[in-house]
């Protein structure tokens, strides 16, 4: 059998756009590429948005492009993956989430939802929080057993939008609020500890019992959502030893300190799970583990004894290795 050489050329940043003077690729003379398209099989693929696993309407990028080519399938990022499961109903059958609910029901304890109140869809999603509230109701969790501990946004959402978002949640009990400046800091343990102490009931309750009342007071004093001071609204809604906790942020890095504090302070039979794997150091049950690429293109070629040579400038080293191999250094 004659072995033939196959060349795959990636023109990074080359796209198909409008056919007018605003598009330099259209204006340029690309005779060779035009010849190929005229005389050989050619097609067009969508390389942005949900077609390559990105949130709806988001521009594509080089990392996602190489990852998708190497994987041979769509690898959905956290936000669209969870959102699609809500829409097709599989979210409401998620074993990890159901285990958290079942734990609280067996123990006769409370269920706590902890995360960012936002429509920014960068770290968390209002749609995901609403789905959790719906899931709890469908599984028979009474309203007096469900408590929310919310971080107000102000960065990926409008500066004072938390009240409007709270109103979209309906009749729920919010036990504490904190600006993301405190609850989601990446480096300052002391800031996150202030939110943690409120969630765990280690501080005095506020004079406010309503999150809207507390926020209105902060707004009068020119606070924006990001900097709302950690505030305990309901002492009965703090986390106890036999409760269940669901951490619903899907982006990892700003939840690592809080997850670590919860893990270190865990006593009794407290059940804690998270939407995604915040850190390998903490082994919480994960509701939405990453979709692993078991047979990237490079591995398929190697397993069939086919030689492959990957050539790129230094800046694209990671793209033709790590991303092309399905987030692995070697295939």
From TrEMBL:
Domain annotation Metalloenzyme: ranges: 6-329
Q: What is the protein name stated in its UniProt record? A: 2,3-bisphosphoglycerate-independent phosphoglycerate mutase
Does the record's keyword annotation contain Manganese?
Answer: yes
Which keywords does this Swiss-Prot/TrEMBL entry list? Answer: Glycolysis, Isomerase, Manganese, Metal-binding
The record's similarity note reads: Belongs to the BPG-independent phosphoglycerate mutase family.
One GO molecular-function entry:
manganese ion binding
A single GO cellular-component term from the record reads: cytoplasm
Task: Print the organism lineage.
Answer: Bacteria, Candidatus Colwelliibacteriota
Which cofactors is this protein said to need?
Mn(2+)
InterPro entries in UniProt: Alkaline_phosphatase_core_sf (IPR017850), BPG-indep_PGM_N (IPR011258), Metalloenzyme (IPR006124), PGAM_B_sf (IPR036646), Pgm_bpd_ind (IPR005995)
Name the pathway: Carbohydrate degradation; glycolysis; pyruvate from D-glyceraldehyde 3-phosphate: step 3/5
Pfam families named in the record: iPGM_N (PF06415), Metalloenzyme (PF01676)
EC assignment: 5.4.2.12
């Amino acid at each position: 059998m004659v072995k033939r050489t196959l060349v795959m050329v990636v023109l990074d940043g080359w796209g198909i756009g409008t056919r007018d003077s605003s598009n330099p690729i259209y204006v340029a003379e690309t005779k060779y590429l035009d010849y190929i398209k005229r005389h050989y099989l050619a097609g067009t693929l969508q390389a942005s948005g949900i077609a390559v696993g990105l949130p709806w309407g988001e521009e594509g990028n080089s990392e996602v492009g190489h990852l998708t080519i190497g994987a041979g399938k769509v690898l959905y990022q956290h936000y669209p993956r969870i959102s699609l499961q809500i829409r097709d109903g599989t979210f409401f059958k998620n074993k990890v989430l159901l285990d958290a609910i079942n734990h609280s029901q067996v123990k006769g304890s409370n269920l706590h939802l902890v995360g960012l109140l936002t429509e920014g869809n960068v770290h968390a999603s209002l749609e995901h929080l609403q789905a959790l509230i719906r899931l709890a109701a469908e599984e028979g969790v009474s309203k007096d057993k469900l408590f929310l501990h919310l971080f107000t946004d102000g960065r990926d959402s409008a500066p004072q939008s938390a009240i409007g978002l709270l109103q979209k949640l309906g009749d729920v009990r919010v036990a504490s609020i904190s600006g993301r400046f405190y609850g989601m800091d990446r480096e300052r343990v002391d800031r996150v500890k202030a939110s943690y102490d409120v969630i765990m009931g280690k501080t005095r309750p506020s004079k406010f019992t309503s999150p809207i009342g507390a926020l209105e007071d902060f707004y009068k004093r020119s606070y924006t959502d990001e900097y709302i001071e950690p505030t305990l609204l309901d002492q009965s809604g703090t986390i106890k030893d036999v409760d269940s906790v669901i951490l619903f942020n899907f982006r990892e890095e700003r939840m690592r300190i809080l997850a670590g504090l919860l893990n270190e302070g865990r006593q009794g039979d407290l059940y804690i799970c998270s939407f995604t794997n915040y850190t390998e150091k903490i082994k919480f049950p994960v509701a939405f583990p990453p979709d692993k690429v078991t047979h990237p293109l490079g591995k398929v070629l190697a397993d069939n004894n086919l030689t492959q040579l990957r050539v790129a400038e230094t800046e694209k080293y990671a793209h033709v290795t790590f991303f092309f191999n399905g987030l692995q250094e070697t295939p």
